Amino acid sequence: MDLVFFDIECAGVHKTYAKICVFGYVLCDENFNIIEKEDILINPKGRFELTDRKGEKGIVLPYEYGEFKRHPTFPHVYDRIKSLLENKNNLVFGHAVLNDVKYLNLETRRFRLPSFEFTFLDSQLLFMTHINDFSRQFGLEYIAGALGVEFTPHRAADDAYATMRIVEALCRVNNCTVEELPKLLNVTAGRISHNQITRPQSKGFKRFNAEKKAAKNERSQKRIKFYNNLSRKRINRSGGVLKGKTVTFSRAIEDDITVSIPLVDKIYESGGRYSPKLEGCTMYVSAEDDATARTKSAADRAIPRFTVAELEALINA
Question: Which among 181, 142, 147, 140 has a CA at the least distance from the CA of 162?
C-alpha cells in the first residue's frame, strides 16, 4: 500500500467554479519513504482572483502568473490526477481536504468530465480527534508546531509534504500504523462518487456537533422566553430612577434568563425600557471581564457601562 498526500491551489474559487492552477502531491510508501513529490501546474483558463471582495487578504503563489499559461489545462492532467487518487492501492490524505475535493468536483463539472471516485482522510480531523478539540480549525503550521514537524509553507507540494509528516507524527504518538490510525481514533474516510461528496467524520466530532446543536437550541429557547417577556412590558409612565433611560445587555446576560428577565422587570418598574440594539442605548450592562464584540462596540459608542450588581444597586437606592 502507498500513501498519497495532496494539496490544491486555485486561481479563483466561487460556489460554481474552482479554477485549479496547482495540484501538489507526495506519494510515499506506508513507512513514509517518499517515492514522488511534485507540483503539477495547470492553466486555470481564467484570470487570477486571489483576494477577497475588498481586494485584501490575498494569497501569494510561488510562481509567476504568466507561467501557468504555458502549462496544460485541467482536462489534460485529469487522467493523471484521477489515476493517482483512484488507485486502489493508494490511501489518500489531505489537510482540510473537503475543500480540495470540492475543487476537483467543480472542475469536472466545468469541463464536463466524469466524476472522481475515491475515498480520502483528513489530517486536520485526525489531529482534532487526537487532541479532542473541535472548537476551531487547526492550520498546518499550528499542527506542525504542536507535533514537532518542521516545514516551511511554500507551495502545494510542500503543504502536501507537511500533511504527510503530520500523519507520520500522529502514527508515532499513537504507536500505530497508518492503516490503524483512523480506526484507533474512530475516524471514517470521506468519499466522492458521482459528483456527490461525503465528508470525513469521527465519533468525537459528531458528539461535539450534537452538543453544539443542543446548546444552540437551548439558547434559542431562552431567547424566545426573554423576548416573549419583553413584548409584554410597558414603560412605567409615573417614572422612577430609570425614567428616560434605555438599557441594553450583553449577549451573555441576555441569554441567562434567570438574571435577565427579573432585571428587565425591574428596569420597566423603574421607568426605563430595554432595547436589544445599541442605537439609542444609554446604559449598557455586562460582566466586568466581558470582551465580546458587542461590549467593545458599546465602549466605542461611549455608552456608560454597568455590571448587574451596579444596576440593581442604582434601582434599589
Answer: 140
* 291 CB-near residues (< 8 Å, 6+ apart): none
- Cα–Cα dist 71/316, whole Å: 76
Tell me if 2-199 shares its fold with 232-316.
Answer: no
Q: Answer whether 114's CB lies under 8 Å from 86's CB.
A: no
74-83 residue pLDDT tens: 999 999 999 9
pTM of model > 0.85:
no
Task: Please tell me the distance from the alpha carbon of residue 278 to that of residue 249, in angstroms, as a whole number.
Answer: 9
Rounded to an integer, what distance in angstroms lies between the CA atom of residue 143 and that of residue 124? 8
Establish how many alpha carbons lie within 13 A of residue 253's alpha carbon, considering only the half-sphere containing its beta carbon: 27
Let me know if domain 232-316 sits in CATH 3.40.50.2300. Answer: no
Q: Classify the C-alpha dihedral 270-271-276-279 as positive or negative.
A: negative
Distance CA 187, CA 205 (A): 9
Q: Which residues contact 25 (CB under 8 A, 6 or more apart)?
A: 4, 5, 6, 7, 36, 37, 38, 40, 84, 156, 157, 160
CATH 3.40.50.300 is the classification of domain 2-199: no
- Exposed (0-12), middle (13-18) or buried (19+): which is 308, by Cβ within 10 Å? middle
Sequence spans of domains, the chain: 2-199, 232-316
Predicted confidence (pLDDT) at residue 13 exceeds the cutoff of 90: no
Given a contact cutoff of 8 angstroms between Cβ atoms, the answer to whether 22 and 51 are in contact is no
The pLDDT assigned to 137 comes to 86
**pLDDT digit string, tens, across residues 65-123:** 788 889 999 999 999 999 999 999 999 999 999 999 999 999 999 999 999 999 999 99
Q: Determine contact, residues 29/122, Cβ cutoff 8 Å.
A: no
- Which triple of cell numbers denotes residue 216? 444552540
